[in-house]
Design brief:
alpha/beta
Length: 414
């Protein structure tokens, strides 16, 4: 049967920009039917897995990252023909064998000459000029595109720059951090290479999977799945506002009483927008018992799979989201903006001068703790009820206290 998410408790949605400070992470809590934002100064693979492990104390966790987890079949054939890799059984086995091989992750210095492309150094910059990308794509029968990439209009996997919409740089950085962790005694599995989703959730507390925001918009906003893709001009403020308003007024959100969390951040920032919509789409599938994918879009050896390629058919023609004035609106159901906080905000950190560090004072009223040079250790500090007896005195759970801190003092991380 196609996989469902009935056996997991949390879905972590990660928008993995190539700049760590721009990455956004949202969590969908299936049991509580809510979505909340995890605010941190920057995100790395290790911190993402730390969050997942923390959540796994209360139930299984699926971690979705919008990077490519898999390789095109033509490239896989080149990998198998290259003796230096041995005979890996699948993508995860191969990536784990690379480990800390930094040479693999560096784009070739001769990237402008497509004839110098190598299987052991596949990343490339697309130079200016007519036919430059085509010259690289001809190195592989499928143009370095997986089946689902061709159907969804994605760019070649290994292109890191030079053309709009590349995914190579974010994917490369994620693989660089993921690869060494695949050879150790890890606490997570990678779907679909290591098993079916339902099976992995029953035997592992954490499952890593690929997502794509281009599928999430329709999965979250369509009246009924299955559906074709929706297009949102997410780089512009107004389309993000329209999409957020539509999401808040959708039937499934109001019917299930879903708390969407920080819509203001999603309206303001396109990375937050993608992360929140992906979390919402997966939460909807779980609540409505909708399968997250179909066997047509799964390859357990090389190409992998993509969550939401099931409720959304990548091959169907894309369309723009409905206009707000044509969409059903129930203003009583729209989430109210958070009321302004009354607590006094501490002064912003002073500019660093030579020989002088930067300090960060804990913003919880009555706390005198000052962090020097970095915010390191903030989580253990704010999780302690003993240190802050008058701040949410009835909340003892450390994870909830950290969540409340991020909610009330999110500005402190900027």
């Amino acid at each position: 049967m196609p996989p469902k998410l009935e056996k997991h408790r949390f879905f972590v949605s990660s928008d993995w920009s190539k700049e760590p400070e721009k990455r956004a992470v949202y969590v969908a809590d299936l049991g509580e039917r809510r979505i909340f934002r995890e605010a941190r100064p920057d995100w790395r693979f290790d911190s993402l897995m730390d969050l997942a492990e923390e959540l796994s104390a209360e139930g299984s966790v699926v971690v979705g990252v919008d990077v490519v987890l898999g390789v095109p079949r033509s490239y896989w054939k080149l990998v198998l023909a290259d003796s230096r890799y041995g005979q890996p059984t699948n993508f995860v086995d191969w990536l784990g064998r690379l480990g800390g091989n930094q040479e693999f992750f560096n784009p070739a210095n001769t990237a402008r000459n497509h004839e110098q492309w190598r299987v052991d150094r596949p990343w490339f910059h697309v130079p200016k000029g007519k036919g430059a990308l085509t010259a690289f794509k001809k190195k592989a029968d499928d143009g370095f595109l997986r089946l689902i990439d061709r159907s969804s209009g994605a760019k070649p996997l290994f292109a890191v720059s030079g053309i709009p919409g590349t995914v190579g740089s974010g994917t490369r950085d994620f693989w660089r951090e993921l690869a060494p962790n695949l050879r150790t005694n890890r606490k997570f599995a990678v779907w679909p290479f290591e098993g079916e989703l339902a099976e992995l959730l029953s035997t592992n507390r954490i499952v890593l999977a690929e997502t794509y925001p281009g599928l999430a918009y329709a999965a979250a906003l369509a009246e009924e799945p299955p559906t074709g893709r929706f297009v949102v001009a997410k780089t512009k403020q107004q389309p993000r506002n329209d999409a957020c308003n539509l999401l808040a007024a959708t039937k499934w959100v109001t019917t299930y009483g879903v708390k969407l969390g920080d819509l203001d951040s999603a309206r303001t920032d396109e990375d937050d927008f993608d992360a929140l919509f992906t979390a919402a789409a997966v939460l909807r599938c779980a609540l409505e018992h909708t399968s997250l994918t179909t066997p047509d879009w799964m390859d357990h050896i090389a190409e992998g799979a993509m969550l939401l390629a099931g409720p959304v058919d990548p091959t169907r023609r894309s369309r723009t989201i409905p206009k707000p004035d044509k969409a059903p609106q129930d203003k009583a159901q729209l989430p109210l903006a958070a009321a302004p906080k009354k607590e006094l905000r501490p002064p912003e950190p002073r500019q660093r001068t030579p020989g002088e560090g930067v300090t960060y004072r804990c913003p919880i009223p009555g706390c005198s703790k000052v962090f020097s040079d970095s915010r390191g250790g903030w989580d253990a500090h704010v999780a302690s009820q003993r240190r802050h007896p008058d701040w949410f005195p009835d909340i003892k759970n450390p994870r909830l206290r950290k969540e409340l801190f991020r909610r009330d003092f999110g500005y402190w991380f900027r």
